[in-house]
TrEMBL record:
InterPro entries: C-type_lectin-like, C-type_lectin-like/link_sf, C-type_lectin/snaclec_domain, C-type_lectin_CS, CTDL_fold. PROSITE patterns: C_TYPE_LECTIN_1, C_TYPE_LECTIN_2. It comes from Patella caerulea. Coiled coil: none annotated. This is C-type lectin domain-containing protein. Residues 1-19 form the signal peptide. The keyword Translocase does not apply.
Length: 153
């Protein structure tokens, strides 16, 4: 397992293109979009690229996304819109790995159904209202898209 993580780190290539940052790992492409959108619109952008808002299913995913986004809070691909308190990734998987900030998720004011990764020094997760606007990272399966087209979006 540790060898796989090291290979993923060494298999990265990165390119920045007008507000979007493209990064490829062994099995997927990650596109960071600095333009803040609400969760629904961010999700649609990722779908148009052939992916989803990035799920952070492992500590390695979490660390990689943290490195890409810098100090910005970003959307991550999880929500409890279907069943309150049961967060799932947009691909339907339950959360096995978590990195919630202490006391989270708390569904403050009954309106926090979408997940963010905080850009502060903690780099932990929080639940927030889906209507706020944040940058986001799309995860795209390498086999589903030709990466040369991502550079012209």
């Amino acid at each position: 397992m540790a060898v796989h993580h090291i290979l993923v780190l060494f298999a990265l290539s990165k390119l920045d293109v007008e507000g979007m940052s493209f990064q490829q790992t062994v099995n997927r492409e990650l596109v960071y979009t600095a333009v803040p959108l609400n969760f629904r619109r961010a999700s649609k952008v990722c779908e148009q690229l052939g992916g989803i808002i990035a799920p952070l299913k492992t500590r390695m995913d979490d660390m990689l996304i943290s490195a890409i986004r810098g100090k910005n809070d970003i959307w991550i691909g999880g929500t409890d819109r279907e069943i309150e308190g049961e967060f799932r990734w947009l691909d339907g998987d339950l959360l096995n790995y978590t990195n919630w900030r202490q006391g989270e998720p708390n569904n403050a004011k009954g309106d926090e159904d979408c997940m963010i990764s905080e850009g502060n020094r903690r780099k932990q997760w929080d639940d927030r209202p889906c209507h706020i606007r944040l940058p986001f990272v799309c995860a795209i399966d390498v086999d589903s898209v030709d990466s040369k087209y991502l550079l012209f979006i």
